[in-house]
Design a protein that fits this description.
alpha+beta; rod-shaped; four-stranded antiparallel beta sheet; six-stranded mixed beta sheet; 2 helices
């Protein structure tokens, strides 16, 4: 519902009277019925008015103002014709000629604010001569812009066998309104050191949260960006580095020492083999030759034994 009718004369060329009527309506309690409409950047949104034109009548019998923050006329019609339109809303607004709803396309963050729909009848009646005020509707438009999915970066500043020191940064950008950013480590909420960047209170925000950690075991970190009931998040495993503080020269020295021992042992084996193997082989050959000579003598003496034996048998 709108406010109670307030008879008034309405000079079209000045908006001061319009502002006074709106303030009068607020005094009567219109602000208590203020509606809230939410939209996202780039969408089309409809702002409801307080009056519906009867089917037996037309817009020609009315004067309709849609304005923002009392002073800026967004769109105005009188006698069925457009009489004013704000430059910032050109080609982005249209009026429903029946229920007087204001449609705004390509919504921007700057469109956020309080709008008023003011309706005046141009028809006179015996009890209301001339044009007269019908109602005012207050509507608050709240525009949001989605933040990017948070990105997490980690920078290791120190590492040992026991722990890893690191700086973790979570950032999100391009959203509205001003967000809240926080983190969760293994299901435990943590507070981030937060910084915001924005050109103005009605410009997109960039936000960064920073956390310093001393990691002694692997941790699951989740970063959340929260704004106007919306929530975006990203998770990352923060793994403890396995770098132990051990002299880097020690492994190389061990390898070189072991290799040197193996090489020296091999060379000694080769030298000893070269020195003693030929002598052993010659000694073995001499024994073989002596054995062969004795075998030969036995073979040669065999016929003589046979001859002696034969002669004794004959006798």
């Amino acid at each position: 519902m709108g406010c109670l009718p307030v008879p008034t004369s309405w000079p079209l060329k000045r908006w001061l009277g319009l502002g006074l009527i709106v303030l009068h309506c607020i005094t009567l309690g219109c602000a208590q019925e203020k509606k809230v409409v939410k939209s996202k950047v780039g969408e089309e949104v409809s702002l409801p008015c307080c009056y519906k034109i009867p089917s037996s009548e037309s817009l020609q019998n009315y004067r309709v103002y849609w304005q923002m923050n009392i002073t800026d006329v967004v769109l105005a019609y009188s006698g069925g014709k457009k009489i004013d339109e704000h430059l910032r809303y050109v080609n982005r607004t249209k009026l429903d000629f029946e229920n007087l709803t204001l449609w705004i396309s390509g919504v921007e963050i700057l469109d956020s604010g309080t709008y008023q729909c003011v309706v005046q009848s141009l028809q006179s009646s015996p009890d209301k001569p001339g044009s007269h005020f019908l109602c005012v509707e207050l509507v608050t438009l709240f525009v949001t812009a989605d933040f990017s999915k948070p990105s997490i970066e980690r920078e290791v500043t120190a590492s040992s066998c026991e722990s890893t020191e690191m700086v973790v940064r979570c950032s999100s950008h391009g959203g509205f309104p001003k967000p809240k950013i926080y983190g969760v480590l293994n299901n435990v909420s943590v507070v981030l050191n937060t910084t915001w960047e924005s050109e103005s209170s009605l410009s997109p925000y960039n936000v960064t949260g920073t956390l310093w950690l001393n990691v002694t075991k692997d941790l699951n970190f989740t970063c959340f960006a929260e704004y106007d009931g919306f929530l975006r998040s990203t998770s990352l495993l923060l793994a403890k580095a396995n770098d132990c503080i051990v002299s880097s020269a020690l492994p190389s020295y061990n390898v070189i020492t072991a290799s040197s021992i193996i090489i020296i042992t091999f060379l000694l084996a080769v030298i000893l083999a070269a020195k003693y193997l030929p002598r052993h082989a010659c000694s073995h050959c001499s024994k073989n030759q002596a054995s062969a000579g004795e075998d030969a003598k036995e073979i040669m003496s065999t016929p003589h034994s046979c001859k002696v034996t034969c002669e004794m048998s004959t006798l």
